[in-house]
Amino acid sequence: MVITAKMVSELRERTGAGMMDCKKALTQADGDIEKAIEILREKGLASAAKKAGRIAAEGLIQTYISEDGKNGAVIEVNCETDFVAKNEDFVNLSKNLAKQAALSKASNVDELLEENYIADSSIPVKDAITALIAKLGENMKLRRFEKFNTENGALVDYIHGGGRIGIMVQLEGANKEGLLEVGKELALQIAAANPLFINKEDVPEDMLSKEREIYRQQALNEGKPEKIVDKMVEGRIQKYYKDVCLIEQLWIRDQDLTIKKYLENKSKELGADIKVVKFTRFEKGEGIEKKEENFAEEVAKQIKC
User: For labeling, which of 78, 94, 130, 298 is most exposed (least CB within 10 Å)?
Assistant: First the structure.
């Protein structure tokens, strides 16, 4: 397979490794970028523990929580330019879709698109989006949503960067007011530290096996004796947990406390246990590669038309 400069550039962007190292890894991986990342990590040339795609698409992340606090949703609606993302009609569309996702019975995007639009029941959601595409002249897409439902717990949302990142957290506990306070802190933590799981038990075994093998190869490549490699691997797995598990992370407000300890302290203070049931963190455009246009070429094309 031909290894292109674009592939090398993307791998370098995702790992921080040198150009030649990236090219060699891609060649060894026959162009498979995920495999190339593993190869670079095994050689100690990349430290990426989280899968991070290139952030490029425009649009908004929106959240909605019902007045009774029982239903909520986080959604992502994409468009082509930041200019349209700030348009009042687009903002209203995204807010309406967040509310509809929270209150809907739809379990996926396709089902939601077929429902009658919450702001105009005479048309389905897909037609409301099409109408705005025609009006503003840009392609738009309801990309994804995550729903939340609770009877006795609390839902807390947080939008960062004017719709760049959206968080929703679901907590359970006896003290509703206290849960809302804790939820705000956890939402800020999730926005800043980007955990992938709540606790260690949530990490899939195949992911752990993959990490262990990478750490083992790292240690062997560093020339460590076989007899201490296993201890090194487990030490690095514990560090991995602290990176990707919310409960194990250091609290951004007080680096002397983990989130687990913070929750224990707050539970004692409120006189009731606090449990993190679920969270979602959407970042605008994550994993989408936006088509890059050469401005000079674009102008030239328009002149020729």
Answer: 298
Secondary structure E strands in the chain = 58-65, 71-79, 116-117, 120-124, 141-149, 154-160, 165-172, 250-251, 254-258, 275-283
Nearby residues of 303 by Cβ (< 8 Å), 6 or more positions away: none
Specify the CATH architecture of the domain 1-48. Orthogonal Bundle (1.10)
Which two three-digit tokens encode residue 211? 């990490």
List the one residue out of 78, 63, 203 whose CA is nearest residue 146. Answer: 63
Asked whether the beta carbons of 221 and 42 are under 8 A apart, the reply is: yes
Number of residues assigned to the chain = 305
Asked if 99 and 74 touch (Cβ cutoff 8 Å), the reply is no
58-197+278-283 falls under which CATH superfamily?
Answer: Elongation factor Ts, dimerisation domain (3.30.479.20)
pTM, to two decimals: 0.76
- Give the dihedral of Cα atoms 202, 271, 268, 244; nearest 10 deg: 20
| Intra-chain end-to-end CA distance of the chain, in Å | 37
